[in-house]
Amino acid sequence: MDDPECFEEYLLLSQVHHFNVFNRSEICEKTQPLHRSDFYKISLIKGRGILQVRDELIEINGNVLIFFNPTVPYFWQTLAEETPSYYCYFDNQFQTKLLNKDYFQKSALFTSSMNPIFSLTDEQAEDVRRIFESMLLEINSEYHYRYDIIATYLQLLLQKAYKFQNISEKSSANKPAAIRLTSKFLNMLENQFPIDSLEHSLKLKTPNDFANELSIHVNHLNYVIKEVTSKSTSEIIASRVLTEAKALLNHSNFDISEIAYLLGFEYPSNFITFFKRHTKETPKSFRKNSFSNIQNI
């Protein structure tokens, strides 16, 4: 970024109060991608650009509300002049202030495998903009309990997003049981991450593991997951394990054998084969190139 001190000062404020909110005009023109961090992020953007989520490039055009899970690398590149955009960051400690955590746990903030992008109508975007403006007004006040009020606005924002999600999923309204099972599976998968200690290796690694934990037959689990997500259970598990593998290679000091153990591979060679099959390079070469890859994002 052009002025790294600007972003560092912002993060310091977030670390002190566990929450911050701003619009694009108040901060540096560019911000660094957070990659793996302690912060959740919600953005309201109106404009045209490219959003990179993990290794996927998504073209955005119009009003979008985006939820960023802290374990998921992302980057936003503007392709046209933007109208004012809004962002808020908060950490795990701040989300404990939420009176109803269900909406947080049902969102892409909590479950990184969910679609994090909501396309909004102008009316919906205006609703969300007013919430962000209320947050900005409150955070700049002198009221001692202003962060409790902000938590209420955050709750409202999460509920609005959940409402938008339900509207966009009307075509799946006749599959509540399948969606509930898929949600349980995705949450169970996500709850195993991030992995940051050799004392906590991956326990649920295969469709059978999840089926046993859910007390259902693996064939039923596979059928439901495929029906709802259009992906196989194994594909979803592999994708999440691969994301964690990349995060550990980029942002930890664990050696490759330790990472293989953490991710549930019996032998390092099995992990290397898995990683190379999905990325066309070895974990060693990926780690070696990671710094230059981040610089080029």
UniProtKB/TrEMBL annotation:
<dbReference type="Pfam" id="PF12833">
    <property type="entry name" value="HTH_18"/>
</dbReference>
<dbReference type="InterPro" id="IPR009057">
    <property type="entry name" value="Homeodomain-like_sf"/>
</dbReference>
<dbReference type="GO" id="GO:0043565">
    <property type="term" value="F:sequence-specific DNA binding"/>
</dbReference>
<dbReference type="GO" id="GO:0003700">
    <property type="term" value="F:DNA-binding transcription factor activity"/>
</dbReference>
<keyword id="KW-0804">Transcription</keyword>
<dbReference type="InterPro" id="IPR018060">
    <property type="entry name" value="HTH_AraC"/>
</dbReference>
<keyword id="KW-0238">DNA-binding</keyword>
<feature type="domain" description="HTH araC/xylS-type">
    <location>
        <begin position="183"/>
        <end position="289"/>
    </location>
</feature>
<keyword id="KW-0805">Transcription regulation</keyword>
<dbReference type="InterPro" id="IPR037923">
    <property type="entry name" value="HTH-like"/>
</dbReference>
<protein>
    <submittedName>
        <fullName>Helix-turn-helix domain-containing protein</fullName>
    </submittedName>
</protein>
